[in-house]
Amino acid sequence: MKTRVLLVTLLLPFMMVTAFSQVDAAPVDQKLSHNLYIIFDASGSMFQIDCSGGQRKIKVAKEAIITFLAKVPPQFNLGLHVFDEKGSREIYPLGNINRQELVDKVKNIRAGGKTPLCAAIDASRKALLKQKQKQLGYGEYTMLIVTDGEANRKQALPSFVQKATDEGFVVQVIGFCP
């Protein structure tokens, strides 16, 4: 009996070290992830040429996003919400996504429709909040809005942005022709 107790006593620290060394480090890293949720305005006003160097605003916006995505580190979680001729929708939920597939989707976006910017901000805020809960509050959370600012409910925008920043999210804007 003493031999078994001694053997368990000697093996216990080794078993604990082995068990902890086999724990995958990915969940810890994922909790520290950077999260970038992009709202892409492809509404009807983005089809205009005004103040975009003789090119349609949608073309300039696509080029800006594609160039930007090439510089985002691969470990970032990305999500994409678009409003265009097909309506307002999430194209990619927030997560580690295939970058080339995302670029291909951005290239195929066509301008048209309304500008439900407030609703898109709120949907993006909810997606970031869900991710923040998954990461136990750790990590960084940014909402990037690409728009010409011609929102349907322009007067309500500050309250939607304030709600997002109150949740601890950084809100950045790439604006066209303010």
Provide the residue-averaged pLDDT.
81
- Assign the CATH class: Alpha Beta
CATH architecture descriptor text: 3-Layer(aba) Sandwich
Please identify the structural class as seen in this structure.
Answer: alpha/beta
Beta-strand content estimate: 15-25%
The CATH H-level homologous superfamily = von Willebrand factor, type A domain
The neighbouring-strand order within the major sheet is 3-2-1-4-5
Q: In terms of quaternary structure, what is this?
A: single chain
The rounded Rg comes to 22 Å
Beta-strand segment tally: 5
Indicate the CATH topology: Rossmann fold
**Total number of domains:** 1
The low-confidence parts are 1-28
How would you describe the shape? globular
Helical region count? Answer: 6
Euclidean distance between termini CA atoms: 81 Å
Helix content: 40-55%
Task: Please give the largest β-sheet.
Answer: 5 strands, mixed
Q: Could you state the order of secondary-structure elements as H and E?
A: HHEHEEHHEHE
